[in-house]
Amino acid sequence: MELTREEESALKGEQGEIMQMAYRILVATGEATDAEKLIPIEWAHLSGVNYNTIGDAGEEFLSTLSKDARVTVKTTLNPMGFDIDNVSNYKLDENFISKQLSIRNSYETMGVIPSFSCIPYEIFDIPKNGTQVAFAESNAAIHANSYDDLKTNKESAFSALASAIVGKSPYSSLRKEDTPNITIEMKVKNPNELSYGMLGFFAGKVGDTSVNISGLGEMDQRQCKAMCGGMGTSGTCAKFNFSKGDSNTEKIEFDEKEMKNVFDELNTSEKGDLITLGSPQLGLDEISDLTAKLKGRSFEKRCMVFLPRTVKEQAQKIGYISELERAGCEILSDCCTCLTPLICKDDVDAVTTNSIKGAFYLKNSNGVGINLKSLQQIVEDETR
Question: What's domain 267-382's architecture?
Answer without folding.
Answer: 2-Layer Sandwich (3.30)
